[in-house]
Design goal:
The chain contains four helices and five strands. The chain is α+β, with helices and mostly antiparallel strands. It has two domains: about 1-130, no CATH class; about 135-200, OB fold (Dihydrolipoamide Acetyltransferase, E2P) (Beta Barrel).
């Protein structure tokens, strides 16, 4: 039988590489779905609300890899799985002919996969960051009030505005002495901490 023909080192490497490969494939599929299934800017207020609105542009991921920081992260779950996958298959391949070479090559190739995955994640984070909302681009635009905006900057309401060719619901406040009711037209005049400052038209 094929399994019985393998030596102990090949069996060990095979048992490491196989589940790691399955996990890596699943994670790649989830990454593809995550990036192609919609826009990458999930807006969320700190306050608990029925609708999740992105004021802080904090992007989250199951493995806490996509946290809005496009930095270089070497040791991540994906990186370690890539290490085990590549290292495991390299060790399995060379484990029959030269065990010492198999161990060395598996470590070297695994580290290369780990570093490669880190660079890939950094690149993907850069793409995600570039897809976030540019609030400055909203200044000067006209919007509709979705939830009443309190007066004198005492809290925020919601507005809907076309930004980046799509309709977005964003938080807004006003410095005027009177609140701006739902349905009113407003003009966006400034941005303060990712909250749009508006005034009645």
């Amino acid at each position: 039988m094929w399994w019985q023909a393998l030596n102990l080192m090949q069996k060990i490497y095979f048992c490491i590489a196989t589940p790691a490969t399955v996990l890596l494939i699943v994670q790649i599929i989830l990454m593809i779905i995550g990036f192609s299934g919609g826009e990458a800017d999930f807006d969320g207020d700190v306050d608990v609300d029925v609708d999740v609105d992105v004021d802080t542009d904090v992007d989250t991921d199951v493995n806490d890899v996509f946290d809005g920081d496009p930095g270089f992260r070497l040791f991540t779950v994906r990186g370690l799985i890539a290490f085990l996958t590549v290292g495991g298959w390299v060790g399995f391949t060379f484990g029959d002919s030269n065990p010492t070479l198999a161990v060395i090559l598996s470590i070297v190739c695994g580290v290369a996969a780990l570093v490669g995955m880190a660079f890939l994640l950094k690149w993907l984070l850069g793409l995600q960051s570039s897809g976030n909302i540019s609030y400055k681009a909203a200044v000067g635009k006209t919007a509709d009030v979705y939830l009443t905006i309190p007066a004198n900057g005492q809290g925020s309401g919601k507005i809907t505005v076309i930004l980046n060719e799509s309709l977005r619901e964003l938080s807004a406040k006003t410095l005027s002495a009177t609140p701006i009711k739902t349905g009113a037209k407003v003009k966006i005049v400034d941005v303060e901490d990712d909250v749009l400052v508006v005034e009645s038209i």
